């Protein structure tokens, strides 16, 4: 050891060069470690943000699942409601022979409507309203001078919304402007 100290003392320029090289090496190493730390922190923030996004999407999916879980079941029940409504439309209220059956149908239909309302199923009956392609399906167009063009004249089948989302569009007849009659030959002369 004494020999090493003697050598170190004998060659001070070599010691300074070694220390300088070691210092530069340390500075480079510190710089590299700081860059790695910054990259790791950035990656950590990205992972945290991604987890937050996944959690938010999962919460939205659960909320949608709760809101629209009845969609298929409701779609299967709507033809029953349609049949009851059609049966009431086609039966006569004055016919004493079917009066009890008609009353039973009315009560059953009321029960259906109350149940649908309780589960946020809302009927779309646009008779007389402007045609809305987001909620209505035009089955035919009919000329009319009594209403504005693009107005619903007749509803073949009601539409339904489930929690504000279209479950089934209303099938409707839409008004259009009457066609202009070409001038007759007598008027042209």
UniProtKB/TrEMBL annotation:
<feature type="coiled-coil region">
    <location>
        <begin position="23"/>
        <end position="57"/>
    </location>
</feature>
<feature type="region of interest" description="Disordered">
    <location>
        <begin position="1"/>
        <end position="23"/>
    </location>
</feature>
<comment type="function">
    <text>Participates actively in the response to hyperosmotic and heat shock by preventing the aggregation of stress-denatured proteins, in association with DnaK and GrpE. It is the nucleotide exchange factor for DnaK and may function as a thermosensor. Unfolded proteins bind initially to DnaJ; upon interaction with the DnaJ-bound protein, DnaK hydrolyzes its bound ATP, resulting in the formation of a stable complex. GrpE releases ADP from DnaK; ATP binding to DnaK triggers the release of the substrate protein, thus completing the reaction cycle.</text>
</comment>
<comment type="similarity">
    <text>Belongs to the GrpE family.</text>
</comment>
<dbReference type="GO" id="GO:0005829">
    <property type="term" value="C:cytosol"/>
</dbReference>
<protein>
    <recommendedName>
        <fullName>Protein GrpE</fullName>
    </recommendedName>
</protein>
<feature type="compositionally biased region" description="Low complexity">
    <location>
        <begin position="13"/>
        <end position="23"/>
    </location>
</feature>
<keyword id="KW-0963">Cytoplasm</keyword>
<dbReference type="InterPro" id="IPR013805">
    <property type="entry name" value="GrpE_CC"/>
</dbReference>
<keyword id="KW-0143">Chaperone</keyword>
<dbReference type="GO" id="GO:0051087">
    <property type="term" value="F:protein-folding chaperone binding"/>
</dbReference>
<keyword id="KW-0175">Coiled coil</keyword>
<dbReference type="Pfam" id="PF01025">
    <property type="entry name" value="GrpE"/>
</dbReference>
<comment type="subunit">
    <text>Homodimer.</text>
</comment>
<dbReference type="GO" id="GO:0006457">
    <property type="term" value="P:protein folding"/>
</dbReference>
<dbReference type="GO" id="GO:0042803">
    <property type="term" value="F:protein homodimerization activity"/>
</dbReference>
<dbReference type="GO" id="GO:0051082">
    <property type="term" value="F:unfolded protein binding"/>
</dbReference>
<dbReference type="GO" id="GO:0000774">
    <property type="term" value="F:adenyl-nucleotide exchange factor activity"/>
</dbReference>
<keyword id="KW-0346">Stress response</keyword>
<dbReference type="InterPro" id="IPR009012">
    <property type="entry name" value="GrpE_head"/>
</dbReference>
<dbReference type="InterPro" id="IPR000740">
    <property type="entry name" value="GrpE"/>
</dbReference>
């Amino acid at each position: 050891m004494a020999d090493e100290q003697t050598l170190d003392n004998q060659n001070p320029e070599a010691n300074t060069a070694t220390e300088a090289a070691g210092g530069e090496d340390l500075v480079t190493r510190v710089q590299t470690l700081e860059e790695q730390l910054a990259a790791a922190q950035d990656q950590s923030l990205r992972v945290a943000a991604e987890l937050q996004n996944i959690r938010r999407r999962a919460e939205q999916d659960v909320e949608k699942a709760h809101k629209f879980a009845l969609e298929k079941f409701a779609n299967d029940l709507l033809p029953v409601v349609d049949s009851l409504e059609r049966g009431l439309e086609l039966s006569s209220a004055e016919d004493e022979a079917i009066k009890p059956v008609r009353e039973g149908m009315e009560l059953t239909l009321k029960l259906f409507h109350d149940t649908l309302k309780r589960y946020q199923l809302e009927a779309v009956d646009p008779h007389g309203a402007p045609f809305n392609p987001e909620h209505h399906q035009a089955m035919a167009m009919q000329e009319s001078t009594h209403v504005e063009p693009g107005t619903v004249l007749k509803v073949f089948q009601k539409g339904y919304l489930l929690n504000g989302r279209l479950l089934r569009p209303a099938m409707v007849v839409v008004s259009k402007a009457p066609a202009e009659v070409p001038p007759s030959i007598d008027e042209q002369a």
